[in-house]
């Protein structure tokens, strides 16, 4: 196995419901699935590299590790603990919401260990960290969520470093990696998708979330947030007509393309 000095974070690939919340849950499996980043564990989870692979298996609609711990309702219904999902459906029955003591327990049990694992993995051997996501082809239309989105038509791939459309700092603010690194990763994806017509944008529609910002500011390791458009694997031409699910061959193909793109960083 090749050991590349890279950390992979997959915060929204899980679909599990914390047992503490099962009794109050109002969401179906389909609701949870659509609110997650489907197939990202299969696409990004390159265990063959033997580098740190940090996966959160709890569904983001219950505990979102890509938010600050104090990002809560009512100021933000799409915070670390949520009241509604991306499509406006109440997460819990009868307007229930975890008490302060239960919120503390949930964060200590599921949120803090994820970030501690990242912190422990950012050692001298790690040169780059990637926070790996998927995005809907278009922003959800529900108006109650504060969508961190600047466009309606989304690109095939978004690479984010907290900067502007060119990867440069906004008003001399902090960026999580250099423009050169974004360009190098972009060229890697262009090579990987050389036989497909794709678009790649920097910091649009997403500039980078809490994981990218927090951990890049607290270490010397450069971070990039990656968003892959679900059109690349969940549109009709990639679905099995009998099951309605994404073809396994396409997931394997995207996994190979992702590997090609990140190997390009070290050539």
Automatic annotation (TrEMBL):
InterPro entries: N-FG_amidohydro. It holds the Pfam family FGase. SUPFAM superfamilies: Zn-dependent exopeptidases (SSF53187). Gene3D superfamilies: Zn-dependent exopeptidases. This is N-formylglutamate amidohydrolase. The lineage of its organism: Bacteria, Bacillati, Bacillota, Desulfuribacillia, Desulfuribacillales.
């Amino acid at each position: 196995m090749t050991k590349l000095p890279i950390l992979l974070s997959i915060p929204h690939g899980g679909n599990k419901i914390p047992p503490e919340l099962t009794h109050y849950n109002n969401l179906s499996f389909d609701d949870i699935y659509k609110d997650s980043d489907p197939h990202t564990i299969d696409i990004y989870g390159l265990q063959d590299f033997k580098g740190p692979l940090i996966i959160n298996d709890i569904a983001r609609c219950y505990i979102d590790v890509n938010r600050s711990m104090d990002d809560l309702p009512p100021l933000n219904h799409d915070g670390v603990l949520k009241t509604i999902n991306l499509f406006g459906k109440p997460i819990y029955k009868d307007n229930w919401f975890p008490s302060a003591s239960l919120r503390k327990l949930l964060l200590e049990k599921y949120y803090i260990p994820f970030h501690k694992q990242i912190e422990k993995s950012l050692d001298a051997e790690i040169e780059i960290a990637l926070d790996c996501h998927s995005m809907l082809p278009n922003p959800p239309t529900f108006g109650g969520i504060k969508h961190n989105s600047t466009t309606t038509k989304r690109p095939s791939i978004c690479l984010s470093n907290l900067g502007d459309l060119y990867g440069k700092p906004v008003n001399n603010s902090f960026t999580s990696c250099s423009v050169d690194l974004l360009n190098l990763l972009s060229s890697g994806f262009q090579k990987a998708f050389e036989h497909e017509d794709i678009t790649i944008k920097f910091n649009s529609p997403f500039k980078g979330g809490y994981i990218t910002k927090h951990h890049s500011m607290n270490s010397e390791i450069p971070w990039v947030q990656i968003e892959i458009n679900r059109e690349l694997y969940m549109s009709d031409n990639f679905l099995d007509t009998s099951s309605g699910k994404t073809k396994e061959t396409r997931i394997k193909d995207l996994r190979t393309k992702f590997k090609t793109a990140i190997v390009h960083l070290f050539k």
